[in-house]
Amino acid sequence: MGQLQRWIYPAGLLCSVILNVVFVVLYVQMNSKWKPDWSKSAAKEAEAVAAVTCSGHGRAYSDGLVVDGSPVCECNTCFEGPDCSQFSPHCAADVESGDPLFLEPFWMQHAASSAVVIMGWHRMSYSYSDRSTISQELDKLIRKLHAHVGNANTTGRFIVFGAGSTQLLNAAVHALSPHNSSEPAKVVATIPYYPAYKSQTEFFDSVHFHFEGDASMYMNSSTSNTTSTFIEFVTSPNNPDGKLSKAVLRALMSKQYMIVPTTGLISLQFQLLQMTISCCLPFPSLLVMLEWALVKEKDVFEAMTTYMSRNTEGVSRDSQLRALKLLKVVMEGSGREIFEFSSKTMKDRWDQLNKTLSVSKHFSLQEITPQHCTFFQRVRTPSPAYAWLKCERREDKDCPAVIREAGIIGRNGTLYGSNSSYVRLSLIKTQDDFDVMLHHLNKLVTKEKQNVKNGINHTSSSYISL
Amino acid sequence: MGQLQRWIYPAGLLCSVILNVVFVVLYVQMNSKWKPDWSKSAAKEAEAVAAVTCSGHGRAYSDGLVVDGSPVCECNTCFEGPDCSQFSPHCAADVESGDPLFLEPFWMQHAASSAVVIMGWHRMSYSYSDRSTISQELDKLIRKLHAHVGNANTTGRFIVFGAGSTQLLNAAVHALSPHNSSEPAKVVATIPYYPAYKSQTEFFDSVHFHFEGDASMYMNSSTSNTTSTFIEFVTSPNNPDGKLSKAVLRALMSKQYMIVPTTGLISLQFQLLQMTISCCLPFPSLLVMLEWALVKEKDVFEAMTTYMSRNTEGVSRDSQLRALKLLKVVMEGSGREIFEFSSKTMKDRWDQLNKTLSVSKHFSLQEITPQHCTFFQRVRTPSPAYAWLKCERREDKDCPAVIREAGIIGRNGTLYGSNSSYVRLSLIKTQDDFDVMLHHLNKLVTKEKQNVKNGINHTSSSYISL
User: Where is the signal peptide (chains A, B) (predicted)?
Assistant: First the structure.
């Protein structure tokens, strides 16, 4: 016992000192770890917002409404409640707009690498240090991206940024129109075309260009009448129908948006390379905040750059910084992840939609042939961004109204220069938007099958009960 | 000695145990502190960039060049070297542009509150949840700011955002021009006017409006010819000369940019309320990435909103988020700090400039009378954004060339509809830009004094040796 008492203190002290040493090591380790200083408050705020999961049917934003100190959920269409958990089965699917929300989960999975901290004093000049309005680091990264994807050779090409394709499109039309001619350039596109071609060209009512509608109307005159300048919008894959379009006025082809001014000799070849839904780049807009154009001719590049400066002093510096960060994520690792994610998501949606409508005689989808994809080095089945739905029955002339009655909000074919037997359905919104649309389409087709079974072939006043 | 040995272990153990308890408390405390999760990498990256101080004569940016893993300094004009520490005394001061870089130190002092983390999935829609392209939180904050400053009553007014004043100005001209008239609206301004009024209106060459130059040319015709629509740009305080301008075509007055279309009856009163250098808001642009307009008429607001959507799908969501954050800082505490900072900085610069040029007979500055300021509730001495320098001597007709020779790059008066005996010098760039300009001006005036002393009164081929 005496022996034990003699050793109890030294042994206890030894253990305690060992523990001291462990604590010191831990403490030093913890203190040597990087801790945020001035960025802490912003980081904490953002993480608090991101922690609001909204049941997976919505999301909170840093600039959204705050109630009692908590960020409020912004729910997907047809979901309600403080945490977006309540589904409204009678609600209409809104698949009208081209918001590329299907990419949201991808960026959420890459929260760490895709976040960016903007300092209060970030880029307070109207220009970068080289006096341009274009971030040279972003320019370099975009060239790398094209080389990686293999969809464009950027050597000798100039890059112009726009705050979205709409700004770039008008800048291009402005730059390509002759400014010393009494006759405005004729802006044309093949039906069905992206509505902005018409609406924007007409809205900006310049003395130098005028929207003239369907390109095919000028197929003959374009060869005989060389005094007119034609600017043809070519979108390939086309919006809305996903077809690989070609310029009808000249046999020039691009995988992307292309504007070909045909004035006498072939003097200009202009490309607006915008990321599109295709086998290689399966999304309509890689970035929602910035688009770019690859321009061949220096004078067109300069004219477009002047347009951007006069219009908005170039693209927002904040968006350029964010774009730089997001494109770095795109190029991370093998640089295939976002393409595989997008491709898979869009292919799944397209397959499900096709399966649903394959049994219908009342509704049809556009046919898209599989293409060989350089990037994935294989032939890939279609995965378009939009469904170009046709109401096949004569009595369903107002197709948007027919599908609206079935609980689906699409975009009228007339906006695309086509007619109202067509509707464009957006497949690139959230999974919820797609699922609700499919749910309503399934009910529509089921009703059709039942009617066929019952021998009813007339137009039902309501396809489905909402 | 035996007594001491008997107590050494228990005492040691006690100390060690106490130390362990302290460590446990520290450990628990440290672990309970908030630590960044996914935002850590972005925060670390930004802090590393901000830590590059560039000797106070430059700054590194998150989207700037990176060499060997280190962000590269972007130096102020006339400073060089990897850390911007080398001053080039023979270098010309560049005070041409209106970059509001004088606010950089303010935002650096408020690094924590002005930083913002943008998540990868931030606002991937083309619209906010209310389907607009305007952040309602930002709209609300701007109204609060105006109420706080007391420079505008926003009740019943609509707010339109633009990616800078240039976009807003053209949107306003577009919205105010008649679209059903064969005659384009006449866009006018009083000389000297902000160059964009002319350059932008001419550049966007619409069929609906045309730049017609000096407003005073139409003072008579505007009263007799009521069939024409006039759109008058009024900037008050005016850019470049800081004068409190009034509309010459109609006696309507605003403290800010104002566009008054004068078509027959007084039907529209339109205000583009842009933050300007005045006693109350002593800066040209509070935010470099976003401007806003307060609009009285609903139809003008809708037309401007349509313009913004067609043009750029509204203002970048990233910029709106950042603007929200920065305006929150502006409103922090008493909400006076930024105004006091700006007011003091600009007043100091103006006083120094005046002192330097007060002894010169060759150069003069505009005269600005002190104004009563509602915000500060006192009469304040002038603190304009720009110096409107005049070369007084007949032989110095090309004033920009004269001061260029002296090592100062200003903007030619001809761009403002005036003549080349005037130059605009920007006072709102960095302290370095201002100091270098003042340094060269001092040399210029010293040379003038020496010449007077020596009885030389002819034009020197070079005012100062660079």
Answer: none
A430 SS3 class:
coil
DSSP B92: P
pLDDT tens digits for range B296-312: 788 889 999 999 999 99
Backbone φ and ψ for B196, nearest 5 degrees, come out as: -65, -25
- Tell me: pLDDT of B2 over 70: no
Question: What are the chain B neighbours of A330 within 8 Å (beta carbons)?
Answer: none
CA distance B55 to B52: 9
What is the separation, in whole angstroms, between the first and last Cα of chain B?
Answer: 85
Select from A38, A124, A137 the Cβ nearest to the Cβ of B115: A38
**Residue corresponding to tokens 């603190």:** B383
Do residue B46 and residue A26 have CB atoms under 8 angstroms apart? no
- With an 8 Å Cβ cutoff, are B310 and A111 in contact? no
φ, ψ dihedrals at A380, nearest 5°: -115, 140
Mean pLDDT of chain B: 85
The count of other CB atoms within 10 Å of the CB of residue B423 is: 30
pLDDT of residue A117: 98
Closest CA of chain A from B169, distance in Å: 10
**In 3-state terms, what secondary structure has residue A119?**
coil
Nearest CB neighbour to A312, from listed B47, B118, B163: B163
pLDDT band at A249 (very low <50, low <70, confident <90, very high): low
| C-alpha distance from B215 to closest chain A C-alpha (Å) | 22
The answer to whether the Cβ–Cβ distance between A30 and B30 falls below 8 Å is yes
Neighbours of B112 (CB within 10 A): 15
Domains and CATH numbers, chain A: 39-114 (2.10.25.30), 136-331 (3.40.640.10), 336-454 (3.90.1150.10)
Select from A30, A312, A325 the Cβ nearest to the Cβ of B164: A312
Give yes or no for a cis peptide into B282 (omega within 30° of 0): no
- B117: chain A residues, CB-CB within 8 Å: 39, 42-43, 45-46, 62, 115-118
Q: What are phi and psi of B444, to 5 degrees?
A: -65, -45
Asked if pLDDT for residue A433 goes beyond 90, the answer is: yes
**Predicted confidence band of residue B181 (pLDDT cuts 50, 70, 90):** confident
- CB atoms closer than 10 angstroms to residue B183: 11
User: Residues of B with CB below 8 A from A26's CB?
Assistant: 23, 27
